């Protein structure tokens, strides 16, 4: 499904260069649940952003179903991000002035979906995360766990193939974090491919595969190795 081939990402800091990723290769299969772990600054989020089309590699290629997404132009990349993948962030990234339903409908607006169909699809996504009763609530009227579930519904609304979760439990207490992890595992059982960046080793151990990054290099490890 996804093939990362000899990818490096170099950042320039003044006169110096920093390799966030150094000649990384990786294959992610359909239906995988992969966690990416490693210390701060190791390249975890960089790898996720490259696969998710939020950034482009300095060298190397990233293939999605045989298509090199690292060569896509801006409009093609925007279409890829909006139709093929969904993002879940630690900080939720919800619009506080809009309701849960309106937040979930946002990707559908960019996709050109009509008004009535937008509402139907957004309500279906909220139902999938068991929050249809909070459709009219704004983010500040919900708990952190509920807000994260709204962001997951937003990620699901365009029926993407892959969900990228960047520290999805990082702003949650243990109970709400447990609920979010259970939801991600349930989505994986339904066929979604999940790629999760986390500092939480307990969360990481629940994935089917664990990738450890250090100094721009990756290694596939077992739950006992973290």
Descriptive keywords:
226 residues; alpha/beta; Rossmann fold; six-stranded mixed sheet; 34% helix
Output the helix-strand order: EEEHEEHEHHHEHEHEE
Shape: globular
Number of structural domains:
1
CATH class: Alpha Beta
* CATH fold-level name: Rossmann fold
Q: What is the strand arrangement across the widest sheet? A: 6-7-8-3-9-10
Instruction: Indicate the CATH architecture.
Output: 3-Layer(aba) Sandwich
Measured between the Cα atoms of the first and last residue, the distance is 26 Å
Largest sheet: 6 strands, mixed
Instruction: Give the strand content.
Output: 25-35%
Mean pLDDT figure = 93
- Identify the CATH homologous superfamily: P-loop containing nucleotide triphosphate hydrolases
The quaternary state of the protein chains shown equals single chain
The secondary structure category is alpha/beta
Roughly what percent helix? 25-40%
Task: Say how many strands there are.
Answer: 10
